């Protein structure tokens, strides 16, 4: 009788890719609901459309690459990309905007580099950045907080970009945008004269809080470690806090930075991407902190509504270098002096 | 045309295309291919310089010592580029302004110096001219293809503003393919050039691979009759 010679540990990890991706999808639900509450049905329509596109593109490319379709589709990574894109794109995205974003995310950013695990850039961020460069007008039309569009009107906008019912004030600048171009006012004066700023900040604070809840849930399930998100939030908070202390009229406070724009979505769902961020723990700290710093710089001095796509893509480029210099010491070896060249 | 000559032409246009295979001269290739007219203008200028430099280098190939050949080649190319630049300034002034720095930068196009050093200085003038012509045409055709791709995707038109290069004849050549196109800015910007170039190279490689595969499968051609030494049965 042959004895099975298996060594410990015998406990199997349940966190296979598909399971992991499913948890990530579930964790976005609070943020999705909050976003729909404040900005209407746009995000939901976007989401369904993006998911359908992502799965079709994924299947198409897998077929072209002669890879097995079912196992790769069911790992859910295309769906995660679709979710992130749909949540990041403005609620008033017309169908073609999402189409272009998903096409580039799945086909160019993911599969042309070799599919899941081989892509140097976060696919969702590539799709987002591409649209931001290619369609600056559509991408900066963020929905107004009091948008009272019903489903039919939203649907009409989605397909035809026309609006029936004489509504014209359906989009507005995001709080970050307002605060970057204060038109000569201090931030306090801006808040006093422009009621939209306060409302916008409230909305984005709620949405960010919802993403924070989802993200903490993932952290509790140990889908990812705390290093990258905490480092990112800390460095963004530190930078914005210091500048706010020095020049409170010009720079929004740390809490406004942390709870507006895509901060929490990026911190817990994008910076933590296992494929495109640094892998060692020290590396994750450096990666997250650098993303936070870049976000602050681009938000304060850049020309785009939010900074996460560019900050994360830049740091994706740097991730292999970070990993090289933060290789952990293997037990019994003298650090990575052994393999230094 | 002898076998050598047809090989030269095939190399320049396809097998050893300066843009698709040698990947030379990428800077102008990516920078000016926003539209067909820009690409055609620069491609034509490069073609003229390439043919001229190949001819001159080949003519003086036995007079110039090897040690100083590169400075001499560069001088020749620079002179030809100056001629091309002044000609464009005189005949197609608007296009000259659009292409701007990329016309004088033809002098740094590695494809030109590369052909001078790798081919023209070792071969007689008629072959050198043929090489320059096919290499230049290969380069220009990639430029025009990329320009057409980016113009179509970026603006939804083809052959817009061709009168800048060809004069009033081409005034109405603008071919609006997609009406009411809102424009795809990405394609007009440099990153679009990289993506487009990558797609063209991928398509060429895929085609070559396909050709190689079909040749491979066709090769085992069995002659009629058996080649076996000992025949025990009938072979059909």
Written account of the structure:
The complex is a heterodimer of chains A (341) and B (236). By secondary structure, chain A is mainly α. Chain A contains 17 helices and 2 strands. Chain A has a two-stranded antiparallel ribbon with strand order 1-2. In chain A, helix 3 (42-64) runs parallel beside helix 6. Chain A is globular, with a radius of gyration of 21 Å. Chain B has one domain. In chain B, helix 1 (3-15) runs parallel beside helix 7 (125-155) and helix 4 (69-91) packs across helix 6 (110-118). Chain B starts with a helix and ends in an 18-residue tail after the last helix. The chains are: A mainly alpha (341), B mainly alpha (236). At the A-B interface, helix 7 of A face helix 9 and helix 10 of B.
Spatial sequence of strands, sheet with the most strands of chain B: 1-2
Terminal-residue CA separation of chain A: 50 Å
What's the end-to-end separation of chain B, in Å? Answer: 43 Å
Helical content of chain A, roughly?
Answer: 55-70%
The number of helical segments of chain A is 17
Number of strands of chain B: 2
Total helical elements of chain B: 10
Number of domains of chain A: 2
Topology:
The complex is a heterodimer of chains A (341) and B (236).
Chain A: H1 17-27, H2 29-39, H3 42-64, H4 69-73, H5 77-88, H6 95-111, H7 123-134, H8 136-139, E1 142-143, H9 151-160, E2 171-172, H10 175-180, H11 187-193, H12 195-220, H13 227-246, H14 254-258, H15 263-270, H16 281-301, H17 308-325
Helix pairs in contact in A: 1-5, 1-12, 2-12, 3-5, 3-6, 5-6, 5-7, 6-7, 7-17, 11-12, 12-15, 13-15, 13-16, 16-17
Chain B: H1 3-15, H2 26-31, H3 36-59, H4 69-91, H5 93-99, H6 110-118, H7 125-155, E1 157-158, H8 163-166, E2 175-176, H9 185-188, H10 190-218
Antiparallel strand pairs in B: 1-2
């Amino acid at each position: 009788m042959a004895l099975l010679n298996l060594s410990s540990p015998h406990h199997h990890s349940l966190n296979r890719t598909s399971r992991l991706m499913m948890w990530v999808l579930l964790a976005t639900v609070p943020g999705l609901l909050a976003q729909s509450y404040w900005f209407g049905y746009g995000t939901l329509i976007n989401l369904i459309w993006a998911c359908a596109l992502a799965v079709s593109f994924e299947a198409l490319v897998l077929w072209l690459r002669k890879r097995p379709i079912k196992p790769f589709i069911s790992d859910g990574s295309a769906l995660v990309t679709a979710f992130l894109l749909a949540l990041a794109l403005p609620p008033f995205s017309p169908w073609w905007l999402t189409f272009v974003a998903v096409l580039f995310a799945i086909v160019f950013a993911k599969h042309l580099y070799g599919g899941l695990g081989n892509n140097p850039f976060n696919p969702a961020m590539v799709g987002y950045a591409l649209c931001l460069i290619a369609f600056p007008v559509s991408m900066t039309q963020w929905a107004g907080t009091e948008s009272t569009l019903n489903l039919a009107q939203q649907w009409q906008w989605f397909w035809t970009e026309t609006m029936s019912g004489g509504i014209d004030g359906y989009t507005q600048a995001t709080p970050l945008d307002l605060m970057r171009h204060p038109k000569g006012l201090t931030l306090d004066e801006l808040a006093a004269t422009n009621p939209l700023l306060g409302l916008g900040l409230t909305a984005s604070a709620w949405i960010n809080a919802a993403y924070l809840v989802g993200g903490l849930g993932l952290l509790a399930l140990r889908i990812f470690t705390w290093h990258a998100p905490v480092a990112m939030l800390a460095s963004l908070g530190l930078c914005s806090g210091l500048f706010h202390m020095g020049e409170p009229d010009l720079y929004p406070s740390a809490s406004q930075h942390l709870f507006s724009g895509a901060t929490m979505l990026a911190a817990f769902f994008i910076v933590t991407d296992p494929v495109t961020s640094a892998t060692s723990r020290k590396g994750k700290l450096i990666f997250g902190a650098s993303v936070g710093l870049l976000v602050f710089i681009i938000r304060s001095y850049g020309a785009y509504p939010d900074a996460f796509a560019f900050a994360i893509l830049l740091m994706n480029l740097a991730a292999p270098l970070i990993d090289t210099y933060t290789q952990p010491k293997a037990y019994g070896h003298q650090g990575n002096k052994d393999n230094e060249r | 045309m002898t076998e050598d000559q047809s090989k030269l032409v095939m190399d320049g246009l396809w097998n050893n295309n300066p843009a698709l295979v040698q990947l030379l001269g990428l800077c102008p290739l990516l920078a000016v291919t926003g539209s067909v007219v820009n690409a055609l203008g620069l491609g034509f200028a490069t073609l003229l310089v390439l043919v001229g430099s190949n001819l001159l280098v080949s003519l003086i190939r036995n007079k110039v010592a090897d040690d100083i050949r590169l400075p001499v080649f560069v001088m020749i190319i620079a002179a030809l580029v100056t001629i091309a630049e002044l000609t464009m300034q005189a005949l197609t002034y608007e296009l000259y302004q659009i292409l701007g720095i990329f016309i004088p930068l033809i002098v740094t196009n590695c494809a030109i110096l590369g052909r001078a050093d790798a081919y023209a200085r070792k071969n007689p003038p008629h072959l050198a001219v043929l090489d320059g012509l096919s290499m230049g045409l290969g380069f220009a055709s990639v430029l025009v293809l990329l320009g057409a791709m980016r113009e179509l995707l970026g603006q939804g038109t083809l052959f817009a503003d061709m009168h800048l290069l060809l004069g009033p004849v081409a005034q109405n050549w603008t071919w609006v393919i997609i009406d009411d196109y809102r424009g795809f800015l990405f394609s007009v910007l440099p990153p679009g050039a990289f993506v487009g170039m990558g797609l063209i190279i991928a398509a060429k490689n895929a085609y070559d691979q396909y050709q190689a595969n079909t040749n491979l499968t066709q090769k085992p051609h069995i002659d009629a009759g058996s080649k076996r030494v000992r025949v025990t049965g009938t072979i059909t």
